[in-house]
Amino acid sequence: MALLEIENLHTYYGSVSALKGINLRVEEGEIVTLIGANGAGKTTTLRTVSGLIRPREGHITFGGESIHKMPAHRIVEAGISHAPEGRQIFSTLTVNENLNMGAYVLGGDSATIDENRQRVFQLFPRLEERKGQLGGTLSGGEQQMLTIGRALMARPRLLMLDEPSLGLAPLLVKAIFDTVREINAQGVTVLLVEQNARAALKIAHRGFVLETGNVVLSGPAGELLRDERVRKAYLGEK
Hints:
- By secondary structure, the chain is an alpha/beta fold.
- It has a domain at about 1-80 and about 190-238: P-loop containing nucleotide triphosphate hydrolases (Rossmann fold).
- The protein contains ten helices and ten strands.
- It has helices spanning about 40-50, 70-80, 95-100, 110-125, 125-130, 140-150, 170-185, 195-205, 220-225, 230-235, and strands at about 5-15, 15-25, 30-35, 55-60, 65, 80-85, 160, 190-195, 205-210, 215-220.
- The strands form two sheets. The chain has a six-stranded mixed sheet with strand order 6-7-8-3-9-10, sandwiched between helices. The chain has a four-stranded antiparallel sheet with strand order 2-1-4-5, covered by helices on one side.
- Strand 1 and strand 2 (about 15-25) form a beta hairpin.
- Helix 3 runs parallel beside helix 6 (about 140-150).
- The longest helix is centred in the C-terminal third of the chain and has 16 residues, at about 170-185.
């Protein structure tokens, strides 16, 4: 049984069809990446899984449990955390306060919250240095670290990352992807949406290519990296 299974998923924005019956599976322990052009349905897929958008048709199961009708907070409690595109941190809260917001599903379990915070600080030492600083005063790279750290505070089984490298300098992009690898090595399954298809496929186990709300190609990441269609359309090769 897959950790996450999406079957025949149809999602709409009003009358506009954004996902047109997609199917995909994410196995426990994998990094799976979704690649495709803007408007292909990648972000919509993550938003539908996390309960921010309701599908019109189809099923989503997580750990064998149906989740597509659950409210978003219940999906977090079930073990899925979503680090959204554009970071969306709380700019007027400190780093520590932002992290605490990510741990709200743990209630008042201060010992577990402190333990989770230390795990985040081990991954992102810069956040510990900035823990009393307002989120809005952080650099772009630091804000991205905070977005991922906040998502990890709930101790998810599945971490969904939407465009973690967006707007970052190349050196920071490498650091973020190295950290994603480390998070996965610690036992967290990752579903990654990323415009930098080459970097995403290099760290992923498998990938899915989306075009206009449809999965048009899937397979092991190494095979997709070598696929002529992927190389021409998404890797900038002729």
